[in-house]
Amino acid sequence: MTASGAAGGERSTPGELRRAGAADRRLRLAAIVLALVGLGIAAYLTYVHYEEIRPVCGLGGDCVKVQSSEWSKLAGIPVAVLGLVGYAIILASLFVPGEEALIVGALTALVGFGFSAYLTYRELFTIDAICQWCVASAIVMTLLAILTTSRLLLAPGDHQRGALPYVG
Fold first, then answer.
1. What secondary structure does DSSP assign to 115-164, as a single string?
2. Fewer Cβ within 10 Å of end Cβ, the chain: N or C?
3. What is the value of pTM for the model shown?
4. What is the pLDDT along the chain (168 residues), one digit of tens a residue?
5. What domains, with CATH codes, occur in the chain?
6. What is the distance of C-alpha 15 from the center of its chain?
């Protein structure tokens, strides 16, 4: 039998399930590493914010201008704190089994990706300055969105390839 998905109603073979499990382990490990990197970046930027110190910023960037702009907070909450929470949720979801954890991780990463894209737009076209830490965080969140969404779409569900109906 092959993994033909919901339309065919056929079950995956043991070999296909083993390969899918190995792929998921690799995606999960990569996501754990990236979530830890993102957590580190967000923790550093949160520390810099609350200690009111200048962030280390090279490569011709202007992290202070970005960190002190009106877009550095959302509803009074520093964006770095939002990133810290987002990365923590993604990291925690990687250690919880089940479809719900896959959905939470992917959804959080996709929201983080969208918000990072918006903030990068603001850096480029409104603030007219680039923060290397913010760019690094945006890259990490983009990769996490790809990995966590891939895990969700490739996860075995009830006798179908994708964890979500009609996917995979």
1. HHHHHHHHIIIII----HHHHHHHHHHHHHHHHHHHHHHHS--SSSSSSS
2. N
3. 0.83
4. 334 444 444 566 766 666 667 788 999 999 999 999 999 999 999 999 999 898 888 777 788 899 889 999 999 999 999 999 999 999 999 999 999 999 999 999 999 999 999 999 999 999 999 999 999 999 999 999 999 999 999 887 654 445 555 444
5. 14-154 (1.20.1440.130)
6. 30
